[in-house]
Amino acid sequence: MPRAHNFSAGPAALPTEVMTEIQRDLLDYRSTGMSVMEISHRSSTFMDIASRAEHSLRQLLHIGEDYHVLFLQGGARLQFTMIPLNLAAPGEVVEYVDTGIWSQKALHEAERLRDAKSVASAHDHIPSESTWRRHSGSKYLYITSNETISGVQYHEFPSVDSVPLVVDASSDFLTRPMEVDRFGLIYACAQKNFGPSGLAIVIVRKDLCPEPLEHESEYLNYAIHAKNTSMFNTPNTFAWYIAGLMFDWISAQGGVKEMQTQCEMKSRKLYDLIDGSVLYRSVIESRFRSSVSVTFTLTDDALHRPLLDAAENAGIHHLKGHRAVGGFRASLYNGVPMQAVDALVEFLADFEQRKS
Length: 356
Ligand code: PMP
Known about the structure:
By secondary structure, the protein is α/β, with parallel strands linked by helices. The chain is 35% helix and 17% strand. It contains 9 helices and 14 strands. The strands form 4 sheets. A 7-stranded mixed sheet has the order 2-10-9-8-5-3-4. The chain has a 3-stranded antiparallel sheet with strand order 11-12-14, with helices on one face. Strands 1-13 form a two-stranded parallel ribbon. Helix 1 (16-25) packs across helix 6, helix 2 packs across helix 6 and helix 3 (77-87) crosses helix 4 (101-113). Bound molecules: 4'-deoxy-4'-aminopyridoxal-5'-phosphate. 4'-deoxy-4'-aminopyridoxal-5'-phosphate (PMP) is lined by residues 10, 75-77, 102, 144, 148, 168, 170-171, 189, 197.
């Protein structure tokens, strides 16, 4: 059966090779006669899957031993809560750069828990660091590397030395290299670039989460998860296994540098089409356009529904923009093949021609 051209923002397309491997293992993982999802997380078989996944990720991003790598549940959003709880004490200041809906949501959660401040706010570009209103005594500065809804991305990360830099890399994790030691904490949910939903990876500098004597919550404490090798409670074993397969797949493609090359080629094809067209329009300042979340609108709103219908008929799925902003969005994550992008570009060009 042919695979759909899937541009979903997440859960999103996974590479067919990885899906085939999962299918092969499904009833019988390496002659155990059991599926990965049927075996204990304490078994040597699963412990081996878990540690190999962590090892592969450490290799992909050159993560040093001074960082914990945690495989947590609760998706990315639980990190909106865990970050302020772990990295600041009640009443302490924490700083957020508001570049869109996801950083705003993170800021609002932090405001409930700590003295959270917005240092800058803009939703169609990344505000220049020279305009940021910094606050003294802050415990960290938080950014969202790719605003999945609007399609605004940091192509250069800010140089923040005074406080730990925290990044929500949910939608562009492993789509490009990252210098891990520039960050205090990096986190990402899995369902866009490396697996199914529910799982989140947290890479956190060990000195930022020393074992606490007292903490507001046992479960929401990084030190507890680190001490228990992310098995404080039963982990999402199946998602962890798939993440491991994805890390190996990325490595076999040539690593994160190759993912970046692919992502840039994919997005360039779409932006070239948009910029050369009368019907399609990008509202994001070109310097800050995302290489993974390509958003666009139409100069003729009446064609919105016809375009979505025609796309579905052509086997091109999930082009509808987020309900908060409307328009269209094509997510070009690691699992989206170049042929899907070529099919989309051809379809959009043809649609414009037919409607003009
Ligand atoms: N941050 C960003 C940048 C996202 O794109 C998303 C999900 N689209 C989230 C956080 C929330 O992720 P989850 O649904 O896994 O909690």
